[in-house]
Specification:
This protein is of the alpha/beta class. It is 53% helix and 8% strand.
Length: 336
């Protein structure tokens, strides 16, 4: 309902039976190899980016460049979902752009949409960090040609209906073993977004469906996380001392670079990154950064990227609630 042009394109290719039998979306798989279909798929995505801009303009009087890659992390604001990992990586990208006049990357808009619980102080600090990054990027002419951050206010279903069809890359970064399932990742996938994520929650099932070549998996697995936790965690200071990019970004949080009017505003966030990184943000940063380099390279190969996107849509039918209820019945309820 929220992606009418994609629906019409699918109907044109395989008919309408997938409405009641979503697994039949797999009939789209051969079309991933069809250049004309991929081009139409790309046109739908561009139209949806335009629709997102319309929503953003109406709600927040903002617009983004529709030629940018759309990279979205839209979910509840919680430490285990690791919006912090995404934000820290953007901060490092900003520094790379500023340090190297020859540095280039696919221009990318990072879309955050989330609500923090009223009393969740740390989550609100993470929002402040993201907004401070956005302001710093916007004030720099060179950086803003390659980076943009948009924080969608008051995230709700109507916003999701505009964001998900427009998204190229879906960020699913929860610390392995912490996410019960997740459904946003399924919706992004169905709308033709490629996932970057940990082996956690429904990401595992997405991986099983699309294969390693059509998803970007990074980070520790759940058993490694559990082993580290039972050993009392790890020492983030080791990474801080050995990784110059992380050290610089974290230092800029509190030295006035990021928040000139109030350098101490993010002190608690800085402290917890170094002394209480219970969700292993710094531990997984290197793996995440390498996966993002692959994303950047692959996105520049339009045929490769669009093939991956079509395959993700084609393999999303398994997440139908009809299939879920049917399996519950076969395995648990045994109702006639």
């Amino acid at each position: 309902a929220c992606n009418t042009r994609l629906r019409e394109l699918i109907n044109e290719a395989i008919g309408e039976k997938w409405y009641r039998e979503p697994e039949r979306l797999e009939e789209l798989l051969p079309f991933a190899e069809d250049k004309a279909f991929r081009e139409k798929f790309d046109q739908v995505k561009q139209f949806n980016k335009h629709q997102f801009n319309h929503m953003l303009s109406m709600r927040q009087d903002m617009e983004v460049d529709e030629s940018f890659m759309f990279d979205s992390q839209c979910k509840r604001l919680h430490e285990y979902k690791r919006q912090m990992l995404n934000a820290l990586h953007i901060h490092v990208l900003y520094n790379r752009i500023m340090d190297d006049p020859n540095f280039t990357m696919t221009p990318r808009v990072f879309i955050f949409a989330a609500k923090a619980s009223p009393g969740y102080y740390k989550a609100k600090l993470i929002i402040r960090y993201i907004l401070a990054l956005s302001k710093m990027i916007n004030h720099n002419p060179r950086a803003s040609r390659m980076l943009r951050i948009v924080f969608v206010e008051n995230y709700d279903v109507s916003a999701a209906e505009a964001i998900m069809p427009a998204t190229d890359l879906s960020e699913q970064l929860s610390t392995a073993g912490k996410e019960a399932s997740g459904t946003g990742n399924m919706k992004f996938m169905m709308n033709g977004a490629v996932t970057i994520g940990t082996m956690d929650g429904a990401n595992v099932e997405i991986y099983d469906q699309v294969g390693a070549e059509n998803i970007y998996i990074f980070g520790m697995r759940a058993d490694t996380v559990a082993a580290l936790e039972s050993a009392g965690g790890y020492n983030p200071m080791t990474i801080f001392e050995n990784n110059a990019e992380i050290r610089r970004a974290l230092t800029q949080m509190i030295d006035g670079t990021l928040m000139t009017e109030n350098p101490a505003a993010l002190q608690a966030l800085y402290h917890d990154m170094l002394f209480d990184d219970r969700y292993f943000v710094l531990k997984d940063f290197g793996s995440y950064s390498m996966a993002q380099r692959r994303v950047n390279d692959d996105y520049q190969d339009r045929d490769k990227w669009l093939r991956m996107a079509v395959i993700n849509t084609a393999k999303s039918g398994i997440f139908s609630s009809d299939r879920t209820i049917r399996e519950y019945n076969e395995k648990i309820w045994h109702l006639k």
